[in-house]
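User: Hi! I'm working on a homework problem where we have to compare a predicted structure to a textbook description. Could you give me the structure for the chain below?
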Amino acid sequence: MKKISIIIPLYNLEHLIGKCIASTLGQDLPPEEYEVLVIDDGSTDGSLAAAEAASQGYANVRVYTKPNEGLSLTRNYGTDRATGRYVMYLDADDYLEPNVLGRLAAIMERERLDLLCYEIVAVDEQGKERPLWSDGISAKNGTEIQTGHDFLRRDRFLPMVPIYMYDRELLNTHKLRMKPIGHEDEEFTPRAIYFARRIQYVPIRVYNYLQRNTSFMGNYNPQGRLALVRAMKSLHDFAARIEAEDSEGAELLRLHIGKTMLRSCKQTVIRQLGDTGEMLRLARQLGIMPLKFRTANFRHFMINRWPGLFILYYRLHKRR
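Assistant: Happy to help. Predicted structure tokens:
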């Protein structure tokens, strides 16, 4: 069995996929010990040809193509075809640090981990590095080995799927696949963490996240905030399904939903990213309100009882 499967979903990124694939090849593992699965999701540019050219001569790189279905189902397509003991996801416009895979595989194996979380760095198109909005949150979660409940209890984790290495047995045993919805990472990652028995964060820079003007955030669609509400509804339904056998786990997930919704609504008001009132009306309609919180303060009270006052407060104070 190979040690690692790297899954790269690809859609219309012909000028970036070569660098992405190259970053997977400059590693501290022999090629026969890991595989790279590039899945072209029905690109309409030259992405498929560029991926095939970049993989030429590398037996451990396989390129697939399929009709366009979106990011979630493309990642799932790769997961279903992975043969490695461990799985990691790499977006086609991002790239890995050199010589990190061997270290990650060794940690996973030595510590018998289900999930390994590592450092991500944002890099703009001029090569300048800058912190993400959540810079340092992973580190605050601690470096000791924890259970999924521990990780959810601290709730200091990043939601992005690519900054975790997964034991493939964990993914398959619990049928962990991504749903074809917007903000799929926000829905998938808490579920994966919930099922993990052993998780560890390591302060190793692994993932370089390219900040492009033409990326999702560079062309932000305010309706995406409603997709987040629907993702939280899916997570809320999952919590309801596990309630009978694990009431504590269900409560931890509901607390995470509350924190995620509060943060998103606050940012939506401050940064004018959409209609916060519409978000909260949809959340109430879908049955995920009242939101749960660990502490009780006036902001928590307002968002549940008087959403209009919550919105007015952040409009006036512009607090982050």
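For your comparison, note the following. The CA atoms of residues 223 and 274 lie 7 Å apart. Residues 247-271 form the longest helix (25 residues). Good luck with the assignment!
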